Each structure stands twice: as structure tokens, then as C-alpha cells.
């Protein structure tokens, strides 16, 4: 299973599964009883190794690209609808977790004649982390494209559920860091290279101020009490990058991100995707990998996805 796609995607899925049992638990509660291993039940009463909507929608995106050999917004939208209404690419055949903005967007796709990239919410309050959590596959698909093509594609795919510029910039930041890691750069260099791209291409957007700490500060210098872990996309992105910058292993980074509390599955997934790219799947405890629901099918999806793109 040693490929960069396996590293990132399985890293994401495991981070998601580690966070599912404690989603919505406060930082204070987790400080007394931190997550130290793959556990089950808890918030959603699911067995150990159960992943949530973060991984499901990531798999739907990969599945669409593998089938279509390109980004097909209508096919991606159809798979998102199939996920929500039919349990497609869920661990056990049913959806147990879905974000409000994501459900609203898929409802629009289901009931309105609308282009997929016009379905996502566009108001300032539609900036949950629901597109950030599933955007990682685009790093593999787009890494040889020019910056303008990457940003255009990321904008369209994010906009299926999240169309506000804050969500789009967050997805671009994450994808650019991931591409740099795939290309073999270390984390700090990957972040610095991302800053050059994002500051250059979004300097005229007022929303860029929301990313001040990511783009113009060293996140590793920020104290844990100043790192937030809500479902707001900027908080998720900051928490994930901070956890990575202040850790030295996959396990440490992902558990640190989850024990920040609140939106634990998504913070774990977003952190886990990059941590997998940095440290490789061989760094992930094997017992965690073996507990993941549908692991053989996930591996096969990674292979199909890899075979469908030129990386």
C-alpha cells in the first residue's frame, strides 16, 4: 500500500475515524480523558474504525474522477446525492453525520434545476469545513496543472457545497500545501511556497484577512489556547496546520488535533491527510489501519484513482 495516494487518503480516513467517537466533546472534557487510540461508540454509537461524511465525500470525489478520468461536476454531484440518500460510500450503508450546509446544497441539487457549482451556499455563514474536508484528491489530480487551472478547478469542486470565497481560499491553501508535500518538500517549505501562491492570487479579495495567521505568521508560535477547533473552515485549517507544525509523527499530529475538541472528526481528517503525506502509511499504527471499515475497498479505490490520473 505504499503510494502517495494511499498515504494521504488512508491518513485522512484514519484521522476521521479516530475523531468520530468524540465529536462535539469539549477541549476541557478531552483534556481529562484524551483520545489515545482507536476507540468506538461515543457520539454516534459506531464501532471502532468507523469514518464519517469527511471520508465518504472524499471517496465519492475519487470515485467520480476514477470513472470519468476528469472532473465532471454533474457526476460528482450525482455521487454526493447517492451518498446522502442511498448510503453510497458509507461505512455500513447509512449516513449518520452530515453538515448543515452540505445537506442544504445536496437538497438543492435534488430539487432544483441548478448547475452543481451553483448549489453551495454563498453567504458568510456558509463557511463550515464541508468542502475542505473532501478536497485532498484534487492535489493528486491537479499537481501538474498551472496555478490558474488549479484554482479554477478547486473553486468549482468546493462550490458544489461551499461557494463563499473563504471556503474556496481555505481549499486552495490546503491543496497547495498538499501538492508541495507530494512533490517532496518538507512541511515548513510547503507552507511557505503556498503563501506565495495564495498571497499573489487572492490579494485583491477582502476575505484574505481571515487567513492572516496562516499567511503572515508562524502558526507554530501560537499557544494552544489561541487555536480554535470549531467547524468554521478557518479554524479547522489553522488547527490542522498547527497540529502538524508542533508534532513529529503521524500519531502525535492526529491525536493532538482531535484532542483540541469540538469538530474532532474533520480536524482529524484534515490533519490526517497531510500527516499521511508527510510520514507515510508505514508510520500509522497497523492496528488502526486494520480496524478501518471497508479498508480493502478503500485500497482498491485508491488504486483505481491512481490508475486514472497521471501522477
UniProtKB/TrEMBL annotation:
Is the Hydrolase keyword given for this protein?
Answer: yes
Cofactor(s) listed in the protein's UniProt record: Mg(2+)
What Pfam families does the annotation carry?
ADP_ribosyl_GH
Q: Which domain of life is it from?
A: Bacteria
Any note on cofactor binding? Binds 2 magnesium ions per subunit.
Q: Which residues bind Mg(2+)?
A: 52-54, 263, 265-266
Note the InterPro entries from the entry: ADP-ribosylglycohydrolase, Ribosyl_crysJ1, Ribosyl_crysJ1_sf
Q: Which PANTHER family match?
A: ADP-RIBOSYLGLYCOHYDROLASE (PTHR16222), ADP-RIBOSYLHYDROLASE ARH3 (PTHR16222:SF24)
What name appears for this protein in its UniProt entry? ADP-ribosylglycohydrolase
